[in-house]
Hints:
The protein is mainly α.
Amino acid sequence: MAASSRFGGHGPLLLGLALTRIIGWGSTFYSPSVLVGALDREIGLNAEIVFGGITILLITGALVAPAIGRVLDREGTRRSMCIGAVICALGLAVLSQAQGPVSYLASWFVIGLGHAMSLANTGNVTIAQLMGERTRRVIGLMMLVTGLASSVFWPLTAVLMNAFGWRMTLIVFAAMQLVIVLPIYAAIPRYRHVPGPTAAPTAVPGASLAGEHGSVAAHSRRAAFWLVALAFSASGLVSWGLPLHLITLFQEAGLTQGEAVWVATLSGPATLAARAIDATLGERLRAEKVALFGLLLGPALCLLLPFVPMTIMTAAAFVVLFSAALGVISVARATLPLALFGRNGFAAMLGKLTVPQNMAFSAAPLLFAVMVERLGASSTLMISAAIQAIGFVAMFALVRMVARG
């Protein structure tokens, strides 16, 4: 009862939404990592094509996010998320029948549409419309739970695939969307939009004007938008690319494969720990200053690593600190737009920000694969530092703008 009242009576629903995040991300974004071998053996899909499905998912999300955002601000999220769950189920069912690269990649367009309607930004908008001033903490907790999706679905996918094959595994995932996810989405309260400058979600009576319209002055909103987009797109280009190649970078610097793999496994716990700290203590600090710290720590570490002797302890310290920086930035990416621009039009703003961010995310794996192969570890780290430094400068300019405002 205490936990439920702490979350405005929405405790059980939030637990259900946390479960839908694990199922949604685990069955779509993370499943190809386990299915890749079977897809290669049975229908001849190489790793580039298999993970190309994720690229299509991200690009599809970028293309439809602005339009979805406008609908979410006007109608709330329940209908969109319910439709999205059905579309995800359909996409997974189509994926289970793939016979080659064309049908495989086409199914990811369907999954990408469902993903954009029910996960990604939509989940954060739901929390904002339900939780009001407590949005930042709850989003942080939700992202903490989402970080468990791979830990749950990698072994689950492997068990199902070994028992029933990859096609039936995807059918099971499709059924989860209809049997588990859809009823939870249907339990989201109906959202009554009140047009006009004083609009406020009905779940948050008495919300402050700053919370409703944000901390950025009206005449600065366009500049603030592009600074946020630049900061998070630059950091996302690195965070979605560099971690995929850390094992290779550590091996090139002198660690054995076993040592490099062991060190790389520290990334997940460090990211989760940073998100947990931000979720519990972050409300005491402004979101843009937390993001600024993460954007400073990341490039500093990438700049420093090539100049220190590579040992297991050095690599471990880099992974822990770098992953912690990425953890707080990922939370800020979801919560900073709310602090800057307010709940009024929050979904539309997230939708617009998704376009440059998802384009950067989708390009990152291939870009870093090329850099690691052609330029080597040290140059890749230097370029990573430079890209993140662009993000830091943009965020620093944003902090100055907010302070002046």
